[in-house]
Design brief:
Helices cover 79% and strands 0% of the residues. The chain is mainly alpha-helical. The longest helix is centred in the N-terminal third of the chain and has 26 residues.
Length: 261
């Protein structure tokens, strides 16, 4: 029964993640942590694989449909930074994990960091119309922004999360749906780098392979459904869904934090 719940979570999280451009891992990771069936490392790895599969599908479909993926000027440099950040984020996760006698206690650090990021994201989203945005064009600055996003994505094991949208709104003045497409591209590159690091370093945690494959399939199906829904709803609806999601994520993070400490 629990595994069926995980499959449903993978599907619906990927649907919402594709619509909002947050990847889905920001839902999958904390919810699976809350069940406590697998180690923090295993959940991070599984969440990353699901997010990678969904974003790969979504970005490829955007390319094939010529609907426009990342803004060509900034997107490439953001992607380069995100890939480098993905590597740094995995190294940071391993370093923090080694600080604790019980490796699962790093879950409390992840939960606290995600809670803070989600709270700040919610505050910005509510007030973004009052906050001046920018149009960053410097390649070096774009790489640094992508680096920070990729690092947080890989360290938290969420694939990207809500912070991507805030950064794209603030630094690049992107409209909601444009930011969502760009966010998925950034998430894809950071997750590819993160997965390669894990595999090449021989640090793949023990995970139930059959369950993982089924969850990956659900993630792709969620990407299919999410992409179709995204085309049919307004940016206003995407914003409302995003805010509701942030509140739910904060609640789960609070639960996980006290469960791990």
């Amino acid at each position: 029964m629990t595994h069926l719940i995980f499959l449903l979570i993978s599907f619906f999280a990927s649907v919402i993640g594709c619509i909002c451009g947050i990847g889905g891992g920001v839902i999958i990771k904390p919810v699976m942590d809350a069940f406590g069936l697998y180690s923090v490392s295993a959940v991070s790895f599984m969440s990353g694989c699901i997010v990678l599969s969904m974003t790969a599908y979504s970005v490829l479909r955007e390319k094939l449909s010529h609907a426009g993926t990342p803004t060509e000027s900034a997107g490439t440099y953001l992607g380069i930074g995100a890939a480098l950040g993905g590597l740094a984020g995995k190294q940071l996760f391993d370093a923090v994990k080694n600080l604790f006698a019980n490796a699962n206690e790093v879950g409390a650090v992840q939960a606290a960091a995600l809670l803070l990021i989600t709270l700040l994201t919610a505050l910005y989203t509510v007030n973004k119309e009052k906050i001046p945005s920018h149009h960053v064009k410097s390649p070096a600055v774009c790489v640094l922004i992508g680096l920070a996003l990729g690092l947080m994505s890989a360290f938290l094991g969420i694939g990207g999360g809500p912070i991507n949208l805030v950064v794209l709104f603030y630094f690049f003045s992107m409209e909601t749906k444009t930011a969502a497409h760009n966010s998925l591209y950034i998430i894809l590159l950071s997750q590819i780098a993160s997965l390669l690091y894990t595999v090449l370093c021989g640090r793949v945690p023990e995970v139930p392979l059959a369950l993982l494959l089924c969850m990956v399939c659900c993630g792709i199906l969620g990407g299919v459904a999410g992409r179709k829904i995204n085309k049919r709803i307004s940016s206003w609806m995407v914003d409302r869904l995003f805010l509701i999601l942030l509140v739910i994520i904060m609640g789960v993070c609070v639960y996980n934090f006290f469960r791990y400490i």
